[in-house]
Structures
1.
Amino acid sequence: MDLGIRGKRALVCAASRGLGFGCAEALAGEGVDLVINARGREALEVAAEDLAARFGVSVQAVAGDITTEDGRGAVLEALGGAADILVTNAGGPPPGVWTDWGREDFIAAMEANMLAPIALIQALVPGMMQRGWGRVVNITSMAVKAPIPVLGLSNTARTGLTGFVAGTARQVAGQGVTINNLLPGIHDTARAAALDAGAAAAEGITPAEARAAREATIPAGRYGTVQEFGAMCAFLCSDRAGFIVGQNILLDGGQVNATL
């Protein structure tokens, strides 16, 4: 299927690896030129060179912390203040229990997983509206649908972003701009490996045993792949997805047990 976005320009955040890289890879495969961002310069530049070589698109790497004003300023400068596609993404806050966290922990989580995506939306969506076409995809979490007790900081911040999108998406859809959220379950990424290692240490088992136990809770019986995730992201960013507005789409292998 031709997604109709060849020649468009996208900003993909946290794109040096994991789900962000999967999204960047899928968009590059559709002929989309990219500005990609992550904190680690070396891994980001490797990713940029790889994508440009494989897909023949322009890929500009901008290293920096997207959760800061300076980091956002750098990517917006590289874009010239305009993009057709925005994929927001940032690493999740650390696990714990509700008694572990104080006010500053919640503020840090909201800066990364709520306020940074909102700032990018506010910076780029007006231009999309003026041009009559745009796509925004926010990578959030299945925790928005089914809160995960040990990820309370993430539950809080990502749900706040979801509320913002619910209203905003319906205000901009008439100008050809869609905003949607992708809610990943467990995918085979470094983040999943870190969570498995933490569970293994807490339970006195091996990381492989921790992974197997978590896979057993997923109806699909496995972790998702970044390629599967990227493919869904590319579709939501496509010209074919203009009637999908303000939705929260689970990619979780059936882990969230809900009818609606």
Note: The mean pLDDT is 96.
2.
Amino acid sequence: MDLGIKGKRGLVCAASRGLGRGCAEALAEAGVDLVINSRTEAQITQTARDIAEKYGVSVIPVAADITTEEGRARVLEAAGETDILVTNAGGPPPGNWTDWDRDDFIRAIDANMMTGIALMQALVPGMMRRGWGRVVNITSQSVRSPIPALGLSNTARAGLTGFVAGMSRQVAGHGVCVNNILPGIHATDRADSLDKGVSERQGISIDEARKQRQSAIPTGTYGRADDFGATCAFLCSQQARFIVGQNVLLDGGALNVTI
């Protein structure tokens, strides 16, 4: 399918690996020129080179911490007039609700709520003036079904979801569609970290922990970053013009919900 976005300009955050890279690759395959970001210069530079060579698009790497004002300023300067925004940031560490203090919550909210909001406030007005834009926020399945050990993430991402529910309807009339993707467990570094946590808590091997977590997913496997990226690219397509303010769940059927 021709997504109709060849020649558009996109910004994908936290794109050196995992779900962010999956989104960047899918957009590049559709012909989108990119600015991509991550904290590690060597990784993001190599990722940009690989994607540009594979798909023949322009890819500008920016090594910066997108969760800080300074990092966002550097990324936004490189991004310029952006048609497509994919927000993404690593999740806060797991833990117990009794152990987190105010500073823990502020860090989580800054990274997983305020970063996405700040990027939208910076880039969406330009999309509105030009009459076209797409925003995809990578959040989590925990927005639909909170995960007890990920209370910091639950809190911050639910806040971002609430913000998007309101603002997405306000900008849709200007040709800008804002949506969220809610990933379940995908085969990424984040999954490896959570597998390790289960392994340590239960005194079992990482392979056993992974099999245990996979058994709770109807597909019996973790998701793949390239499939996730394809969904992201579709939400950024011309054909997605009637999808507004939605939370698209990609979890292999793990959440047993009707709506």
Note: DSSP finds eight helices and seven strands in the chain.
3.
Amino acid sequence: MRRAILIGVQLCVLAAALAGAAGSSRAADWEPVELVVLLALLALASDALTIETKGQRLSGSFIALVLAMAFLGPAPAVAIALLTIAVDTLRARPPCEYVLNNALTYAVFPLVGGLLVRGAIELGADPDRMAFGFVVFGIYLVTNLLNFLLTATGFRIVLGHSIVGQVRRILVPLLPSEAAAAMLVLAFSFAYVYAGLPALAIAILALIAFQFLTRALLLSQDRAEELEARTTELASLQVGVLAALVQTLSLRDKMTARHSAAVARYSRASARAIGCGEDQQELVHTAGLLHDIGKFIFPDRILFADRKLSDEDWQIVKRHPAQGARVVGKVAGYGPVAEIIRCHHERIDGCGYPRGLCGDEIPLLSRMISIADTYDVLTARDSYREPVPQQDAIDELRRVAGTQLDAELVEVFIALLLGSSVGFQHTTDADFEAELDIETRVRAFVG
């Protein structure tokens, strides 16, 4: 019953507004016809190109309606407004309860605005003088507020939304854009009064072009933000998969997983020490974490060997850099990481594997990982070698410098060991988890 009463009231108000528009119509209101057509096209085009961004809705259609109120009259303004809302309804197909309230709103405020302008003219405002623009400016403000109140009242009736709440959520954020639109109304009024229809037409075309370009720009920014969000989600998935691989390796062989985390830490420190940028530091760190992922191919007799490996077993061992690179390389964006992993057992003298690269043919970051790998194998307890003291490990690094390892990078690494607390704790999971921090990996991937 209450709904039927509300609909009846809305229909009565709409009928009264239409009757008022019809009763106030004069033949002169529809001239010049070119202005009627121009303002109708502006209203339709601007409504179709409405810009919505950060809670604000920017459209030039209201500008066209105010200009119609000012320079045509109540009836043409109502006709253009209803045409605009009819086309918008066909395009957007809002719920039925909104359609009647929209029609009522777009019939009432143009009628009220047009009658106010007519009253101002009867009181002495001259439409042919520049000062009339300020009358139009005032009409814009009044009708804009009336439009909001009618719309907010409809939301209050249909959805129960508080009008005060709508003021805070809708009206206040729109004030900057509405102030700019009011200034445009003032400028367009001056253009029409001073230079006539051609000047107004040019200004309107410029507005539509600006609105079109701005909307295209904002849409591209929205797509870029959406792409960035999806990239972050993809990166999170990819990094999560790789982290899960390392965690799985940890379940099978905790010492190898911790070793990988230690190599990652040492390698990043080396990259930082020689002046590599953040992207290269992150790259070598990720490669360090994953450099032994190919050890998944090892049978238990190799992974947990407590004896010297056979020649057959060594052939399997020598496959793990290429196997690890193959796995990591299948993840989008991890091609450079895969290449570093592939080369981390190459030697400066060309006697390494899998490709027998030598000297500078070996990627710089792979050479860093080789040094960190060698040092950690020497100093950390594992399944087939007793750990040695740090100084003995340093002596061994220097002994193989220039043949197995890059001599200059060896000295950089030794200086780090002796001059900072870059060490890694193998006896707990704390350092391992810190190096595996997934959130940091995701930020670096998308950064």
Note: The longest strand covers residues 51-53.
